[in-house]
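User: Quick one: structure for sequence A, then sequence B.

Assistant: Sequence A:
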Amino acid sequence: MKIAVIGAAGMVGSRVVNEAATRGHDLLAIFRRGRPTTLPPAVTAVEGDADDPARLSDLFTGVDVIVTATRPAPGHERTVAATTTMLLDAAATAQTRILVVGGAAPLQLPGRPDLLVLDSPEYVPQEWRTVAAASAAQLDACRAHPADWVYLSPPAVLEPGPRTGIYRRGTTTLLTSADGASRISAEDLAVAVLDELEDPREDRHFTVGY
């Protein structure tokens, strides 16, 4: 499978590239700036920007699936929905499926389907609220777009860690452990991404966690 990864230099994108490479896939690593210094063998790295959807559409030609795992720079959180729409436009033009790694904010709270993670100070402290709201707007942008997309919401805490290859998968409700923690390593999130790419489910919005 040929996979294009947008945001290949980031925490999630770099791990998706590594996971896909270990599974023998053909990788196109797309970065805006800060070219990755270390890449697995046979990974092609190219520059690309969501502000240039025509170039992205060209890059996506011949690609089987796209993964976008980008995060806004501080102070630019409100651009997320527009950037995602441009990526969806490019994917639709290329007639290529796209998996968007977003945020936990649009998930429902366990036991409170009337509330979102965005509304919970327990999971979204005030200082994270702006970027959390941006991920909720990002999912809205996907829902409004005709592209063939799937949206992955990570749990509340996503950080580098060990690759166990073990995780739980849910749909639109935040996954938590018995003590209320909601987390996964970026390495195991990448495992979940590749599992979805290799064996797509019907859910357009799903989540994972331990």
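Sequence B:
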Amino acid sequence: MGLAPDWRGKGLGRSLLNKALELAQQSGALDVVLAVDDVNLPAKRLYQQAGFVRYAQQHLLAWKGGGARDEALR
């Protein structure tokens, strides 16, 4: 989940999260797990306020294409 910068700080993230949790509960989900960047303090605060607790931490390495080789594969 993410919001464009112009839409942040208006309670929309909290509304989206609450709706997602409501739908998960209605569908019988036993657990809801999410991942967030450690430096994303506003998101971490939101999730903590919603009752999420950290249970694991890992380092993720990610690559994004975009070079000439990737263009040839399309």
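The chain has one domain: 5-73. The chain has three helices and no strands.

User: Thanks, that's what I needed.
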